[in-house]
Amino acid sequence: MKISANEVRIGNVLEHNGKLWIVTKTQHVQPGKGGAYIQAEMKELRGGSKLNERFRSAETVEKVFLEEKPFQFLYKDGDFLHFMDQATYDQIQLPEDLIGESAAFLSDGMVVTICLYENEPISVALPQTVVLEIVESEPVVKGQTAASSYKPAILSNGVKIMVPQHIESGTMVVVDTTNATYVEKAK
Description:
The chain is an all-beta fold. The protein has strands spanning 2-4, 13-16, 19-29, 37-44, 50-56, 60-64, 67-77, 80-85, 91-95, 111-117, 120-125, 129-137, 150-155, 160-164, 172-176, 181-185.
């Protein structure tokens, strides 16, 4: 679907130069001389390369609509991850590098959202947060609790994160899957 360059927003997926790009930043620029334009920073969906592009206000761009479907994570087999479509029970196999570092947070039965373009998987979105157990952390050092300081800890999935001083081994914590950071102590 063609849209005006003025309608480009963050999160839009555009087809540009034969590739699919997701818009990560936009800025409307109106110089003193010449016509206004949209400065868009985009990231390629399949390759991950970045591109800064200027679109004149009168220009049109091709906006792509992606189908988002819930899939259940089944298991890992070497470098591949297996998922099942929640509606049709069809199974698909995707390379682990499609998810990237967030793959460490996958657990059996977890429901993820897979974006499809012309029935081809483009990206996998995990839930925003997960609850995991701290299996190893340094003991609290007396006197370091006055200021908000953090210490390293290892989660049950092997990922290292920084946690507040009061968090001990065996504590369940909420972790952000997008950047592997501590959110809060689980209730």
